[in-house]
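REQUEST FORM: STRUCTURE PREDICTION
Request ID: SP-0412
Submitted by: Lab K.M.
Chain count: 1
Length (residues): 250
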Amino acid sequence: MRLSSVSLPALLLAAATAAFVPGERAGAAPAVAQPRLGAVASDAAEADPARLMGVWSLADNANVLFNLRLDADGRATTAAAGRGPRPEGAGAFTAADLLERGRWRGWGNGVRVDYSSGWTDTLLLGPAGMVQWSWAPGADRSGPPTNAGKAVRVDAGVTALVGVYRIMPPSAAQAPWLASLLSDGRAANTLDADGSGNWRMQAGAVVIDWSSGRRTRLLVKPQGPFRAELWSVGANRDGAPSQVAEAIQL
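STATUS: Completed
RESULT:
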């Protein structure tokens, strides 16, 4: 689609000189700058999508961080701990609260990610660095974004760990559940009514303490499934785990 004689990616990139206001991942659009013409970044090498592979920190509609992973094969996945303000009594997180899947492609001076949920995220290089423009399902991609803000690359030390994991209990009577690890140390799961938690590295493993009183320990492996050690509410955390499961990073 074209607006006047200027392609949309070029127009949005030029608009990176405007002020960005952190906005919503869902809901009413905040006041954001209208796209306008202007100078674009001149370093063509920075436009190479291969330079943008990895994990990025973006913001949702409550200005709460979520992570976006871009893989060289075109896949894009997000990890979150819920989407925007959570109503009281909403119950456990769903898979959609923690994970989005999409595909990325080069777009102007950056990349565009289209998700199966209908959302679109873009990472664009502006004069002040990388920025995020996002559109809600059904929003006109030639109009102002639903929300916008800075895009920050996640430190390489935690990049491999950030993401969403499927925990596979050893018993067929127990359903698998998801756990997300975010780059700011927050965690979330689909198992508990209050699925919030925090994670840290300890002795080469990821330790997650959940608000429910559970603990999960992921043993990091260079490849293949992770070993997940699970302590139930009230279990002695210095003792043997209540259960051992397999964890797969999605």
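NOTES: Confidence is low (pLDDT under 50) at residues 1-24, 26-46.
Reviewed by: T.R.
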